[in-house]
Known about the structure:
alpha/beta
Amino acid sequence: MPKTSSKIAKPKYKRILLKLSGEALRTKGSQETISPEIVHRMAEDIRQVHEMGVEIGIVIGGGNIWRGLSASHRGMERTTADYMGMLATVINGLAIQSQLEDIGITTRVQTAIRMDSVAEPFIRRRSVKHLEEGRIVIFVAGTGNPFFSTDTAAALRANEIGADIILKATKVDGIYTADPMKDPKAKRFDKITHREAMEKRLSVMDSTAFSLCMDNRMPILVFDLFAPNNLVNVVLGKKVGTLVYTN
């Protein structure tokens, strides 16, 4: 395990699952699918948390490259479209791995679809061992099955590795009563139960992922990835974003 600096406050969580959107890797309005500058900034934020001694698993989406569901709505066969989306997450995962290792952090990419020359196959016991030894594990290719989102992959992997919480990084600072970009009167929740969020039909994760979290009492914290020091503040237990929990 990496040593925890005496100058840094004690983290609230020992092991986290960080869910990153593929869209977060690109500059808004740019034709570039992956921005090296954005990925580097993410890596630096993750490094700070890693140096606190927190064990980190990451699930990354592929929406900056390919959206399987969107393609299926435009006539492509759904299973094929979803597999293409899974492969897009591998590209993103390798980009994050490259930036993390460039700043001195040992990582492993584990894939739900075997591609031995690129990444390890997902093996739960191996991923837990990597985490215990201070490596960051990046989970790619979703669940390896069509019709499941990377939100579901995040919920599944978080439960499999025994994470304390899922940190869902977004472009907004939490969960609102309505879309804050469209409704200026929308109010942000500081915290809400899984059941309340489901009853209010709030967009936290897709229903499969959300049910998996609720059934296994897995908390979810939705926060703004791009606000300065937000990831560190979340891990320290400061009031950031919206916490979804089970009573």
